[in-house]
Amino acid sequence: MTARRRPGPPVLDVDALLDDRGTEIIVCCGSGGVGKTTTSAALALRAAERGRKVVVLTIDPARRLAQSMGIEQLDNTPRPVTGVDPAAGGSLDAMMLDMKRTFDEVVEGQASPEKAKQILENPFYIALSSSFAGTQEYMAMEKLGQLHREALTDGTYDLIVVDTPPSRSALDFLDAPERLSSFLDGRLIRLLVAPARGPARLMTAGLSVVTSALGKILGGQMLRDVQTFVTALDTLFGSFRQRAEKTFALLQADGTAFVVVAAPEPDALREAAYFVDRLTDDDMPLAGLVVNRASPPARTDLSAEAAITAAERLRAGDSSSLTAGLLQLHADRVRIVEREQHLRERFAASHPQVPSAVAAAMASDVHDLEGLRAIGTSLAEQR
Question: Transmembrane ranges (predicted)?
Answer without folding.
Answer: none
